[in-house]
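We modelled the chain as a single entity of 188 amino acids. Its sequence is:
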Amino acid sequence: MEHTAISHLGELAALTAALCWSLNAMAFEVAGKRVGSLAVNYLRIFVAFPLLTLTALLTRGMPLPSDAAPEAWFWLSISGLIGFVLGDIFLFQALVEIGSRISLLISSLGPPITALISFVILGESISLRGLLGIFVVMLGIALVVLSRNPQEKKVKLNRPLRGVVFAFLGALGQCSCTVRKQATENKR
């Protein structure tokens, strides 16, 4: 029994992370509807920063990465502003407007968007299989967010456009961290 649990530790960790991610989004949705998405976002930052500082202190022996080069601090700051500030502001408002289920679904566009941005801007290659995967993900999300009215014979959004755009901008904000990391690795 112990051998089986150890051999599937990665899968168990992934399922636990997905469960925590889902519960977290639902909690932020409820809190955002009660006190507003900006208030929840600010409160989250004030709770997360001391916890991350403590984690860094315990794992690295220093509360902040004071050993990082100035260029790294610059890019870390830009990435944080785009991802944690702008991206999360949009995501938290999307949670309020279209709910956690659809917001997280649209947020899963982050990796395909990152791959496409890396292809266009950084000149990275994407295999045919990778392009097919991106297409399947985008098609699946479109099937959930769009609906067809048989009487009108039109396809339309089944969620408010504003919420869908906010969720997409939130996903786009999360891409900034990954694209910057890839650009740095390509310079080496």
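As a brief sanity check on the tokenised model: Helices lie at 2-7, 9-35, 37-60, 70-107, 110-122, 128-145, 161-187. The chain is about 80% helix and 5% strand.
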